[in-house]
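We modelled the chain as a single entity of 298 amino acids. Its sequence is:
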Amino acid sequence: MSLTITGTGCPIPDANRAGPGALVRYDDITLQFDAGRSTVQRLAGADVWIPDLSAVFITHHHSDHLTGLADVVLTHWVMDRTDAAPPLPIIAPAGPSSKYVSTLLDGWEDDIEVRAAHARRDTRPGIELTAFEIPDSPTEVWRDGNVVVSAGQVRHEPCPNSVGYRVDTPDGSVAITGDTRVCDEVAELAEGVDVLVYEAMRFAFYDGMPPHRTFVRDYHADTFLIGKQAAELGVPKLVLTHMIPPPNTDEDRQGFVDDIREGGYRGEVVVADDLYTTAVGEGELADVRPVDQNAEQG
């Protein structure tokens, strides 16, 4: 089992950080969680053949988590040389997220038809949408054999119907928070996992700024509180993503680590870059970090 962070960015464009996303692989099962800008390029960088995606999971309907989704679906079809690939399963919470997925291909009809005619293809891009109601506690929403994905409510108000996901396999388990405040719901979702992927924001960075800059603290996760919760959970590895402000220097990276340590966490901390990859649980894959990531991580 492996985890790859396909995008560590936030809504503000960054030349080095794609939009939010995480990839979990187990044997031939390939699962993508969220699809921010440039997800297809990052999947290519992770050596994923797009038609081999098993399913895509959406955490919530904020645009930075969705702008790459149409690209994933269209590329899933364009790259299929067999003209036999089934519709791409997309799993999303009921409400705005599932509504968006259901209309995802609107406006692409002319492109699809001209491509199909030129290549003499009988198929068209397809989506198999599974919409689920927000559960009171983590609940299974997808399964392939002994690989189970559960969804759990998180607290990203005022963006309703937001969830995080947990993937359990015979090798290990990983929880992906999506966007959220630090909350009891995340603790329930992440109990006992090997790796916890957490969106992270340095609240202190915004101290003294005017209200139109600080409102984002209302629905994101403070690094100090992340460290406190991760310590209480005893999670072996904590991977930070969707980082605000983006850590573009060694000093910036160390600031995230220091905040987590101040919260009490003593496990491994990873300030992720795009395509950071690690084994989960009993796998043998070594951690992979970009060569310029020199800050102390653990």
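As a brief sanity check on the tokenised model: Confidence is low (pLDDT under 50) at residues 290-296. The CA atoms of residues 192 and 234 lie 8 Å apart.
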